[in-house]
Specification:
Radius of gyration: 11 Å
Number of domains: 1
Oligomer: single chain
Number of strands: 5
Structural class: mainly beta
Mean pLDDT: 91
Length: about 60
């Protein structure tokens, strides 16, 4: 697993809420605590599509 570039992480925001993201290196996801979504990182590339994100446990119904 290749770590996410810190420069890129500082600039990415959640497309749904425009809030900062938290990097979960173990899961290879970018977490939006505000939206309750986890965006996958595939082959080192963040997939910043709401349709591709999974709901986090905090917001699961």
């Amino acid at each position: 697993m290749k770590p996410l570039d810190p420069w890129l992480l500082e600039r990415l925001v959640c497309p749904a809420t425009r809030t900062p993201l938290r990097y979960d290196e173990a899961a290879q996801e970018l977490i939006s605590d505000a939206a309750g979504l986890a965006y996958p990182i595939r082959d080192g590339v963040p997939v910043m599509l709401v349709e591709e994100a999974r709901r986090t446990d905090a917001t699961a119904a």
